[in-house]
Structure formats: structure tokens, C-alpha cells
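Sequence in, structure out.
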Amino acid sequence: MKSHADYSRYFALKQRAYLINISEERDREHFESLSGVIIDRSGNTIVLQIPYPTEQELPGHDGIPRITYKLTSESMGGGIQMMADLVKVTAGNVFHLQLRGNMEMYQRRQTPRVDTTVNLFQIRRDASLAVYRKEFRRITAYLGTQGMPPGVKLQRTGINLSAGGVRLNHDPKEALSPLGLFLLDLNDGRQPVCVVAEVVWNRLEENVRKCGYRFVQILKADQERLRNHVQAVQKQQGMDVSPLRTNWELLDRMTFEDPRK
């Protein structure tokens, strides 16, 4: 597409969109993301409001390199994605993004999910995404060198799980924070999976608050462990196991960057 194309017509106001870090300087062992609602769009610019504080530092300040995201959303039932450079962040956690490159369309696929029971530890408090990411890095480093951090107690918990997120039940009297950090023991002889997740929906059912979380910080190796775990549980439950297919909204690259294409 030419640079003067009006990309904004593919994105609707109040539509949820996802940002996945594809910066050249990113840690390629990590999947790093966040999401928000489109509040303005025009030409090659998109304005996205994030529902929680991020403490995002701006490129160009103190030598911080350019931050490039894959902006992905849905259009006419399919997935669309484009590269988007972060231009600025304004009050109210508003991200101003400049689109560039070619728009790509892909077939959206349902990420396999299972109801299962795992040993779980969770931290849910009002804090910025930057604070959660710092804690994520501290815990994953500790898990990799010394094992389970002191004071962490896992509890047997029923969940609905996929490689991209988890559904949990909460006491409706508890304050609901938009972010959480979870440790999930997959009972595979390895240390628990550590994730940072954002709330994408919640509803009250029979005096229980059900919350759907999307993973926004996770090791790619742990993404693969979750896929394998979900598939193993499906087999145990006698479910049909479909061949693994690409879910582009869970990858930190564009289609044209895939060496298999």
C-alpha cells in the first residue's frame, strides 16, 4: 500500500485493539503486549487509550530507542495487523501511534481452551504495568536460578486456560484491579509459569465474579508449555485435538517476517 493510504477506515472508534512489542531492541525470549480502546483515528494515525497506567517511557528520551508495536484488531471477522511506532503518551494513558508498512490480514483462529485445575499463586493490586513487568522479571529470574520464591504459596484452583489467557473466579466483594501476576504450576516437573495479565472482561454470575484475563507478559517458552498442557488436558478429557495452528495475535512478528512464508 502507498504511504498516503487512509488506514484508519479499517479501525473503528471504541474498538479494542492490541499492541504487541516488535521493536528491534526487544527481548526476543519474551512476549510483551498490552491493549486499549481506539478513541481517535485519522489517516495513518491511531490513538489508543490504555485502561491502566503503564509508566511508558518515550523514545528519544535518555537514549531510549524507537518503540514499534504490531497493532492488531478485527475487521469483517478476520484479523488485521500493522506496524505502529509510538509517537507520544498523553494524560489518561493515551498512546499516539503512527502506522507504517503494509496492512496484513490473517484468519483469526480460536485459541484452544480447557477447564482444568492447577496450583496457582496470584498478586492483584493497583500498580502500573511497569511495576508488574519489573516484578515479573524478578520472579522469573529467581525461578530460573533458585526455584520457588520464599513466601509464595500455591493453592489448588479451578481455571479455564489457554496459551493466551486464563479465566478465574473472584469474590465479588474484592476490589478488581485491571492487572494481575500469576504463577501456574502445570505439574510437568518444572518451575511454575509466571505471567502478567490484564482483565479483558468480567461479569457476576451466581454471586461469583468471573474474570477473563489476557496474558501481556510471558516467556515464549512458557507460551509453548501452556499450549502443550492444554493439548494434554484435551486428550485426557477425550476431546478432539486439532493440529496446532498459528494464532497471529499471540506472535511478536508480522506475517511477512515469517521465514516460512
